[in-house]
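Here is one chain, start to finish.
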Amino acid sequence: MKKRGLTLFMSAMLAATAVAGCSSSSSKNEESTAATKGTSDATVASTEGKGSDSTNGPMSYGSIVLGETGKDIKTTIKFIHHKTDREADGTIAKFIEEFNKVYPDIKVETEGITDYAEDSLLRLNGKDWGEVMFIPSIDKANLSDYFEPWGTVSEMDKYINFADNQSKNDLCYGIGYMANAQGVLYNKKVFADAGVTSIPKTPDEFIAALKAVKEKTSAIPLYTNFAAGWTMGAWDAYLGSVASGDTKWMNQKFVHTKEPFKDNGDGTGPYALYKMLYDAVQQGLIEDDYTTTDWESCKGRINKGEIATMVLGSWAIIQMKEAGPNPDDIGYMPFPITVNGKQYATAGPDYQYAVNKFSSDEKKLAAQIFVKWMVEESGWCDAEGGYPVSKTAKTSFAFDGVEVVVDEPALAGEEDLLNQMNAESDLNFNASGNIKIQDIITNAFNGTKTFDDIMKDWTKKWNDAQDELGIEVLY
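Its structure:
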């Protein structure tokens, strides 16, 4: 069974387990109760902004005052996560050491899990996996079956970005450990050596910059990372607001659009986005043999100036900086599409902290305190080069002259339409759709299909899927 299939299967199994585990009340009644109670599940109403040394029950995020709340707690909690690299290099251990200077009696055990996406789902089947985990791929309808809410979305919006990302019935269940913005990694020294003095803002300017790199340096202009596969899916992340300037396009309009892949004629939209890759390949602006690219070695190569650009999210910045002796040469620029004179970047949370609802009240409060300290005091997000999650912690992340936006969610009742379209069309945008991007490279390199022909194929698949699913075409 493929991983994606296993994930979907496990999500369904977990949902069924949660329903079977309910006593006399139905999930519908639970949701109604949660909506009526508002923040009472998180004991928010009477405690917002008040710390308490004697309160050992779960609290809202806003009511926890670090250094004051829970100072009398003596317990051990467990944190399971996917950051095996930071587990191995001692980074997480150092965070806990600093946390224990404030809370010496809250001991934190950690476990980094290699196959976290699948293993975490399996562990959710039991209730004793620990106190803190990063939320795996489960339906939002099941969040309250496993996790303690942090507070209402509106309350949490005061403290964090993306408060509604993992929410149910206006309650927030997840807080990102970091967030990702979407741009392009580049080596600043290579650009300078190539005479590229300004950051490209359009597809034409980007291709011109790559040509200058090829003509004046020995660096690979654009490293595709074709062989890794999953790196190809990174190109999909620039759909929506980045390519169109419209925050409604990705999750509300895309499925209802008749020709989403047509040439707008102004260097915007999906056509312009993917054509940059096609043109770079066709014009010899990538590695000599794209089939032999190597993910691990590319980090050191861009650090040393052997690679000029790579299309990846901001999560990759720190990896490239740490991979060699030239961290200051690594830059991150906005994606080179300009809409009506303005550039956009989207951002969203990575994995998100959640607290086990089945732990004891004392352990839950200890877990909440630990998470808040990690979000606001540890500096982990900034150290990873992430877009900020906390609205109070300092950050060095900046996109000068670029508006960072969030694609608006799907309309009520249409939450699953894009998933259905992805499956029916087999294009899988932002859903491990690596093969279609690899096909762009293969066709451009071999000259087997023009870019317009590829877009025609995508359009037919899209339209056939709309017809099969009975989706109304509005745009």
